[in-house]
Structure formats: structure tokens, C-alpha cells
Amino acid sequence: MNLEAIIDKSRIRQAFSRQAHVYEENAPMQKAVAQGLISLICLTSQAIHPKALDIGIGTGFASKEFSKRFPNAGVFGCDISYGMLKEADKTGAILTEADAEHLPYKSDAFDLAFSSLAFQWTNLRDSINEAFRVLRPHGRIYFSTFGEKTLRELADSYNSALGLLNTGKAVGTMKFESSQRFKAIMESTGFKDVEVKTDFINDSYSTPEALLRSLKAIGAGNPSREFHPSRSLLHEIFRIYKERYGNEDGVSATFEVVYVWGVKR
User: Fold this and answer.
1) pLDDT digit string (tens) for 114-155?
2) 97-116 mean pLDDT
3) For residue 261, with 0-12 CB atoms within 10 Å meaning exposed, 13-18 middle and 19 or more buried, which class applies?
4) Does 33 map to a domain?
5) What pLDDT does residue 179 have?
6) Does the pLDDT value for residue 169 go beyond 50?
7) Crossing angle of helices 124-134/179-189, nearest 10°?
8) pTM, entire model
9) Counting C-beta atoms within 10 Å of the first and last residue's C-beta, which end of the chain has fewer, N or C?
10) Number of structural domains in the chain
């Protein structure tokens, strides 16, 4: 599992559905990552109208970018959030409400699969296995997700606050996989010619609270039902965050974006 806490799918579904109507206006980084992902795609299928699957389509901006580059491709999309699918309906993709870990498609159905910033909300190995299953031989997968240094400042502040308050065992912050782990899972699944590319995005926020509000605005909260930090814990987290990572613009936050692709042989 690529999260330290147990993934509560109903919590994820509700959070993203609730914010779907304002997601795009609050997601400039997600749009930039989707554009970066689509720019990497090499579609080598001999089919006149190749079939592509957008896993975790969200509001659909990755599919829109893909269709601009490959207008002859047939695009399918799935997402666990019905609210997101309502927004993605404008893309023209054939949509299905589905979990990336249990895709409702036949085996060997697609020439290409892509996914932008969705796999971090899933069991990574299960999602990659499913993508492998639905791809035809020589089909390709491209996905972006967050790497292990993402929100390292928040994790450090949280863990330090736990220690100072002596609160004992508590549900941790989200824990992301390393680049090496992504490649290992891809290769153990059966993908060949696996490539991994990493970019770092350093954003500034006026306060740590503003950072959390920006995450909440797109539905990206902690996916564990057991994560309920107390007011005193939050106060200490914010104090430490400002002390260690403050600057003239407020506070900094790191996002490690990992792009991964490979071929089904």
C-alpha cells in the first residue's frame, strides 16, 4: 500500500465529489502535471482508431490534452467519484464510475492507459496490475503521481509536534512511494522498458493553514477515517511549520512529481 494509513474509499469519493465543481479553478499544479504527462506519451499502436483509458479522469483535463494530440483515438475514462465524472462529461470520453483497483473492462482492451495524479489514492500495486490486465500486448501505460518527498515539511512538523506533545501512537500523514519503488512494482507486474522521471515543485503559501485549505479545496485530505488531529496538535504543527519552513512569502511546501511509463510485452 502506498499510504501509511488505511485508505477509506468512501471518504475519498465524497471529498472529491464535494469539490468537483470548483476543482479546476483550484488545481493549477494538477493541470500543469497533466500537461507534462501527456507531452511524454508516444502512441505507437497500428490501429486506425486506438483506444485509450484515462484512469482517475477527474474533471478531464488530461483527457482534453490527450485528445488534442491524438484526435483519432477513442478515449475512455473512469473515476471513483461521481461528482468528478459529471464534470468530465464535457470531454466526450466514454465514462464509467470505477475504482482503479477494480477496472470494469475486459482484458487486452486498450492500446494505451494514462493516469494523472490519481494512483496516490489507491493501492499502487493493485492499480498497476489492473492497468496491465486491460492493456493489449505492446500497449503502454503513462502515469504521474507524488513521490516520497511530497509535503515533507508538513510530515516533519506533524511528527515533531506528536513528539513534543507526547501524544503516543497516532495516524500518520500520507506516505508516498520512492521512485525506485515505482519502477520495481512496474517491472514485477510485467511492464518492460520502464522509465521514471522526477520533477520538484516548490510552492509558497501565506500560512500552513492556507496550504491545508488549498488541499481541502480539491478534495485532497487524509484518506483515513481515523485521522482527527486535535486543535492543540494542529496549533503545534502550524507553529513548528512556520518556525522551520517560513520565508518572506509565508511558508514553503515541496511536491515531488514522479512520471512513470512502460510497455506491456
Assistant:
1) 999 999 999 999 999 999 999 999 999 999 999 999 999 999
2) 98
3) buried
4) yes
5) 94
6) yes
7) 40
8) 0.92
9) C
10) 1
Give domain status of residue 89, yes or no: yes
N- to C-terminal Cα separation, the chain: 25
Residue 235 lies in a domain: no
Q: Residue 189: what pLDDT?
A: 98
Boundaries of domain holding 144? 9-149+176-202+256-264
Closest by Cα among 100, 110, 142, 113 to 2: 100
* Residue range 26-55, pLDDT digits in tens: 999 999 999 999 999 998 777 789 999 999
